[in-house]
Amino acid sequence: LHAWECLSVCVGVCSVCPTVLHSLKYFFTGSSGVPNFPEYVSVGLVDDVQTDYYDSITQRAVPKQDWMEKVTGYLPNYWDRETQRCQNDQQVFKANIDIAKRRFNQTGGVHIVQVMYGCEWDDETGVTNGFNQHGYDGEDFVAFDLKTKTWIAPTPQAVITKHKWDGLPGRTEGLKNYLTQICVDWLKKYVNYGRSTLLRTELPSVSLLQKTPSSPVTCHASGFYPNKIMLFWRRDEEELHEDIDHGEILHNHDGTFQKSVDLDVSSVKPEDWGRYSCVFQLSGVEKDIVTKLDPKVIKTNWGRTEIKPETEIKRDGGGKDTSHLLDL
């Protein structure tokens, strides 16, 4: 599952430059031989916030956010239709596992087929993008190239699928239309429904951490929303790129995010520490949170310190469309 779980965090997030980028993503997982786990699971996310859920045990598509109920004002039978769609897709995934097992000359064991597709929309520039990727047992299987409208097969076992799907121009054109038009239109609807949640702004708490006296100093920002941010170290007024290690943006249990960036201080002279600062920037917020590198405020594992960082504030069928999900 890890291959697509990473995408749920990373797609639509730029760790280098912030932008107002919204995303609608669907994750589908079909499995066999996994104990105490549904044979089929469908999850939808808007801006990395889970919006709906279905599995083969409950046999019912349900909203995961209160504001997703608003969709029934547009389509009264929305959740019934989603349930029916998921029940149909469940059979497709079951068949695809059997096909993939034959392709890889496998019999028993644990096997997983995954699909991730959706779209992105930059509400500042209007630029959109779409993606459709399939995986098998944690590895890439086939992916759709939106520019060429062809399928890419990174493994020999997927070449048959590539030729088969490339030979269906009607469905290919329909997939392009969904990714560039229908998906984006529904993404805009969902963002509007959940604007009080999705368009909110929350600033983080920023801490400096160090495991040992010789370890890098970690600047850790937690509790921010949305996840369009910049977090970096600078010396004087210049952003640093060497001796820096950026962590991924991670989810917090309360729906906010966290991120860290490490600074190797092994070559920094003690008298120069005051020239270094960690800077947090949130898209849409003019003021920055600047935390100066000061030994007195670093949380350590070898001694407790009172942490009061010197921070200065500066600156129609619904969104899902699985009509293109085909047997491999």
From TrEMBL:
Lineage: Eukaryota, Metazoa, Chordata, Craniata, Vertebrata
Name of the featured protein: Ig-like domain-containing protein
GO cellular component: external side of plasma membrane; extracellular space
Coiled coil start-end: none
PROSITE patterns the record matches: IG_LIKE (PS50835)
GO biological process terms on file: immune response
Keywords for this protein: Glycoprotein
Segments forming domain Ig-like: 204-290
CDD domains (UniProt xref): IgC1_MHC_I_alpha3
Superkingdom of origin organism: Eukaryota
Family affiliation: Belongs to the MHC class I family.
Keyword Acetylation: no
Keyword Glycoprotein: yes
Species this protein is from: Myripristis murdjan (pinecone soldierfish)
